[in-house]
Amino acid sequence: MQHTTWQAKELTPGQLSERSGVAVSALHFYEREGLIASRRTSGNQRRYSRETLRRVAFIRISQRVGIPLSEIRKALDTLPEGRTPNRKDWERLSVTWRADLDQRIEQLTRLRNSLTDCIGCGCLSLGSCRIVNYHDRLGNEGPGARTLDVSIDCTRDDGCEEPAGREEITPAGREEITADADVAGCAEKMCG
To answer: Name one Pfam family in it (predicted).
Structure first.
């Protein structure tokens, strides 16, 4: 008697794909990355244990909330060999990810709140731009857009305490940029 897919102890890549909603190519990628494992039949075909469904669900949910695959792999590596994550595991792991997610939410909220003033960068709105890259300092980092992410706090007598601008720069350049008079001038404009 042949088991139906939901009763089978092992699943083919196609069955796992159908049950999980994840493409076979993604399953192979997860396997190469060490997130899931399969055994090989005598005909060299992959077979996944039923528990792999839960691991794939864990991976997908973690990705959906913004956790990078490298962090997901580290989390799965904390589990005993071959065990699938359960509710307690999710609770424990989600606590460790909460601070990172809160930081990302804060950063995205700041970006959203300044989006109406920003035209994307050229920068034609330099006088009011919260994303400052004076003298194209990030041009040496390579082509394409760069996230600028270093806080410059502005405190004045009138109670302005909002971050004036953010730039992400290499650690070696951090002292140089925070001491830069142009950035300090921008901080003054933003609080004024």
So the answer is: MerR-DNA-bind
